[in-house]
Amino acid sequence: MEKKLSKKSHRKQRKAYHRLLRDMDIKCCDNPTQYVMICNAGLVTGLQRKTLQDVIDPFIDKYDLIMPLNKSYCFIKFYSVENATYIYNKIHGNININGQNTPLYATFTESVPDLNCYEWSSNLPSGLKLVENFITKDEENMLLSTINWCNEESSDLKHRKVKHFGYEFQYNSNRVDPDKPVTPIPKNYQFLKTLFKKYHDVPYEYDQLTINHYLPGQGIPPHIDTHSAFEDSILSLSLGSPCIMDFKRENEKVAILLPPRSLLIMSGEARYAWSHGICPRHNDIVKTSSGVTTQPRGTRVSFTFRKIHKGDCCCNFSEYCDTKQNNATTLIDSKIALGIENSYVHDVYNKISNHFDETRHKQWPNVTKFLQTLNMGDILLDVGCGNGKYLYQNTYIFKVGCDRSYNLMKICRNKGFEVSLSDCLHLPYKDNIVDAIICIAVIHHLSTRERRKQAISELARVLRPNGKCLIYVWAKEQEKDSIQTTYLRYNLTKKKDNSSCTQELTEYGVTLPVHENRTKFTCKDMLVPWKRKGGGNYLRYYHVFEENELSQLCSEVPDLVIKEVYYDQGNWCVILHKKSEIN
């Protein structure tokens, strides 16, 4: 048994040697020094400073315990080699902590990290205020006793339980419906409003309350409360267990410990420009008078008070504001449309063509169904054929494709497809020459209504009388499992917060919102990011269509008759027939 333990100890030490050299450029030693590293216990493993101190204190009075952030190991600095050797022999392979089956493993090191290199930022974001002991212990107990988490008024989210009073918070839109009030805020909570005015007096009373119930290990994703939905100030009262709330704005990060019975006030910049969230974990890393340690979480309940706001937001933080995004300058005229499409459509697809080809294989079922209605010998034109995924199969029809991207055309030709390089606004084909056309996810890349109508007119021109056409465009109305939701989840870099932004196209004098992953489309004209495999993020211009918008546009083209309009996985779709008599 001793021999087996010795081999395991040696493996742990060798592993620590390589890890420490890589992380901190500190070498482990075979001979005793005054520095000891605990290889398998640190802040990441949930080690509390006091737990290790209770092991050492009975034997040694003077030492320094160093617990690096985000590491699964820690260090002890002794003031003599003799003391270090004594504790090493006591700990290594002999001591189990926190009920673990594995004992602590130790090794000597040449040095330890600087004691002062783990200072935390103490600068709170502007507009953020923490009031400790905002209520008494008795008041806390009273508030907790009033909540019944088993009744129908509570609901379970993925990471916590919630209750709403005044107005229900709608998590699908991050708003409330001001025309649909729910159960009013209970009268026995009214004393809080009097206390609010003592610390943060505002000319309104809070009329919306969300109560969150967090078990250990649960949290809430980083987010900025929707600007236009609520007034400036948001108040959050913490009950039960303490926890760390993380605030972030661009490269600035601040971690704030919320003690029980404390009130967090968010206003101004902290409310409008900093994201806040709670990381889902069982322990928080906190700073004490003796140093950094871990603090286990218990059950926490928060009371978040807001005031419903009607109308646009008037803040000064446009890059995070839904009102500023919705009112962004999106007036695109014919003079700048071509430049925008060249920069944010054509150039982008040339750059992402290989990755696009790798991720576009499966045909959409309803497009395949349309193709199966064609007769033997029919000529099919795929306008905006991309990587040619609809030019496969159907050997009984003659298929040709065209696309504006030169690199996508090369990919298609390497696959043996009959394709040409062309713009959908000026198709290089004679009038009345093809029996059927598909135009899938193309017209939404055109940046003016006139150009979108012109593209549909071109489809009508080359289509034979009695020929038929299928058009797909992205819908502004998105369902949970739509194709767009899948594509955006795959293509977008995972955001570290829920802040939104706009992109100013300075060369064209236009500002467009950048769509945020896993959110509804809030504007009809926007930039949608694409993350290319191997690095590189690109923005593509989209005009997303509202219901009836595509059919209205098609109805204005004289030669076309609308046969069917339907919604398919995040797209508005229309099947058109060309009139048998040409006017």
TrEMBL record:
Classification via Gene3D superfamilies: 3.30.70.330, Alpha-ketoglutarate-dependent dioxygenase AlkB-like, Vaccinia Virus protein VP39
List cofactor names only. Fe(2+)
Q: Which GO terms describe its biological process?
A: methylation; tRNA modification
Entry GO MF terms = metal ion binding; RNA binding; S-adenosylmethionine-dependent methyltransferase activity; tRNA methyltransferase activity
Coiled-coil spans are: none
Q: Specify the signal sequence span.
A: none
Question: Which residues are in the Fe2OG dioxygenase domain?
Answer: 205-309
What UniProt keywords apply to this chain's record, in alphabetical order?
A: Cytoplasm, Metal-binding, Methyltransferase, Nucleus, RNA-binding, S-adenosyl-L-methionine, Transferase, Zinc
Q: Where does this polypeptide localize? A: Cytoplasm; Nucleus
InterPro entries xref list: AlkB-like, AlkB-like_sf, AlkB_tRNA_MeTrf/Diox, ALKBH8_RRM, Methyltransf_11, Nucleotide-bd_a/b_plait_sf, Oxoglu/Fe-dep_dioxygenase_dom, RBD_domain_sf
**Principal place of residence:** cytoplasm
The cellular component terms of Gene Ontology attached to this UniProt record, alphabetical and capped at eight, are: cytoplasm
Q: PANTHER family, alphabetically? A: ALKYLATED DNA REPAIR PROTEIN ALKB HOMOLOG 8
What's this protein's name?
Fe2OG dioxygenase domain-containing protein
Q: Which organism is it from?
A: Melipona bicolor
Taxonomic placement: Eukaryota, Metazoa, Ecdysozoa, Arthropoda, Hexapoda
